[in-house]
Amino acid sequence: MRIGVLAGEASGDILGSRVLKELRAQCDELIVEGIGGPLMEAQGLTSMFPMDRLSVMGFVEPLKRLPELLHIRRAVFEHFRDNPPDIFLGIDSPDFNLRLERKLREQGIKTAHLVSPSVWAWRQGRVKKIKQSVDLMLCLFPFETQVYQDHQVPVRFVGHPLADELPNRVDALAARQALGLATDNKLLAMLPGSRSGEVSRLAPAFLAAARLLWQQNPQLRFVMPAANTAREVELKALLAQQPDLPVTLVCGHSRETMAAADAVLLASGTATLEAALTKRPMVVTYRMAAFSWWLVTRLVKISFAALPNVLAGRSVVPELLQNAAVPEAMAAAIEPLLADEAIANQLQAFDRIHAQLKQGYAAKSANALLQLHEGNRVDG
């Protein structure tokens, strides 16, 4: 089997490598071409371009890099047009991959896409273009499949690899010991996000909420992971203004930090899924620029922001968004969780979410691609 792949960022490299490993176990000979990172290269991929050349975010940076990005996409298209693979798999990066997939499909190449764009939340009209681009959509979450079924796009729910990876119960004591944290105090983990804008808007409010909680309970301790070295510098500067506040700053190790905590205060995003699968009660919050918030509230068509609430289909974890994301509200929402009150509802929902997402992601994805390769209908 000869497969073309394209992943544009580190998360896609992780997802793709697990699928390639499973395909390699099932195929006598697997040839992999395209673009990916070190994990996919370890599974036999020779990357045509460095993956980090595609790793751009925001609105301005892609425009600055547009000539290079267009050159890369054209080169990849021409390579696979002239050397057609059995299947082309685009992994996330929808703005880059879906147009490439459509052009390859027009050449008669079977195409699949892993990680659904958020069409279930906003701009559902994009499904029409997706239908022109892919022979198969692979979804990580069960609620994503309905919109594709409604538009007759072959789709398969494959589960989430985190649910396969994380145990049903995580040892908090072992996590604290690994991070060098005290084992005999209540501990709150605070995750203000991975981007500079998120940290600047949320971290001061998180620290103010922490001070309110500490004044009520002087035995309480706090831990805050920095997503990278740049965020570590920003957070160190903020903590230097409050040297008496008992906050331990660590670089990286966000999952271990959540595992070590009794409760978590965090920015809305994929970290909320990790917190849920780690079975840690949480309060989810977010702030963005005023115009962005105005735009989001008019475009997004779902009732919840936090993934645990979206997956549960109801309000399981408190959401404090935009003007509600103030220190007093954060402290008030966290306090009962630290007192082990009102956590049973969250933990029961997290157990159900874990069971729902634990599907054997790699095997399901590989089997779906093999069925597509063999010409069998793939759906469900």
Notable characteristics:
lipid a biosynthesis, six-stranded parallel β-sheet, transferase, elongated, 13 strands, Rossmann fold, alpha/beta, Glyco_trans_19, about 375 residues, 2 domains
Describe, in short, the structure shown.
The chain is an alpha/beta fold.
Overall CATH class of the largest domain: Alpha Beta
Number of strands: 13
Residue fraction in strands: 15-25%
Rounded mean pLDDT score:
90
- SS-derived structural category: alpha/beta
Helix fraction, binned, reads: 40-55%
Number of domains as seen in the coordinates: 2
Shape: elongated
Low-confidence stretches: none
Largest sheet: 7 strands, parallel
CATH topology of the largest domain: Rossmann fold
| Through-space gap between termini | 24 Å
| Tally of contiguous helical segments | 18
CATH superfamily of the largest domain: Glycogen Phosphorylase B
Major beta sheet, strand line-up: 3-2-1-4-5-6-7
Rounded to the nearest angstrom, the radius of gyration is 22 Å
CATH architecture assignment of the largest domain: 3-Layer(aba) Sandwich
GO molecular function, one term: lipid-A-disaccharide synthase activity
Catalytic activity: a lipid X + a UDP-2-N,3-O-bis[(3R)-3-hydroxyacyl]-alpha-D-glucosamine = a lipid A disaccharide + UDP + H(+)
Pfam families: LpxB
Family: Belongs to the LpxB family.
